[in-house]
Amino acid sequence: MPTNYTPLPLRSLETTVPYGRPPLPAMGGVTKDSPAMQVMTDLEKVTAVTTGPDVNIDTANQQMITSKVRLLLVTDEQHRVIGLITATDILGERPMKHLQQRGGKHADILVRHIMTPWERLDALDLRDVANASVGDIIATLTDVGRQHALVIATAPDGGQSIRGIFSSTRISRQLGEPIEISDKANTFAEIEATLSE
User: At 84, which CATH number?
Assistant: First the structure.
């Protein structure tokens, strides 16, 4: 087996040059009739941004800002999703409600205190998404009053994994038009809390 390696020639830069970057979704690059897969963040192509349950919420918020996302998957030591947390969770009423119920200081609030645990998550099936349009996804997000939707894939053995994420912000950017989604109470506890306010 030959072990003679040849050094490659070095070249001088002719001027200041750009650097390679992944393409950004073009504004107006999709329509509501486009396949939904065009606006899904595919976790087989893009690394998911995750955090742990014992991370301070201010740290998690900074992680979102740095990563330019508004949702973090909350994972355990085995890299299993145990919940999710959004910018709305951190910047909205949940921290204040937690302090009212439990006491303490804002600096003591951890992701696990205000995240949505896995038992309360629901998701779209990849098989349904594969046959859906962008308009169908917008209608779904609007119907459930959420900014994000998870997409699950089911393996032949029946095991599930999170395959993708839809974000109303990303869809809006790709469509080049705003998407208005109002929050809705989705569980009996949320409905009761809304009625008692």
Answer: 3.10.580.10
